[in-house]
Amino acid sequence: MPDIQKKFGDRLREIRKQKGLSQEGLAFKCGLHRTYISDIERGSRNISLKNIERIARSLGISPKALLD
Question: pTM for the whole thing?
C-alpha cells in the first residue's frame, strides 16, 4: 500500500498541474512557502488539516477533492 503522504502529494501535483499552476504560484496563492508545497508533493511532509483546507481553497476545490 502506497504511503498516504505520497498519495496525497501525487494528488496535489495532479490538481495543481490541471489548474496550470507552478509550485511557486500555488504557494503564493495560499500563503505558504514553495519548498513546503514541494515537500508535500514529494510525500515528505505530514500536512495539517488546516493547510489542506488552505490549499484546497486556493485551488478552488473542496478538501475532499484532495483526499479522493
Answer: 0.92
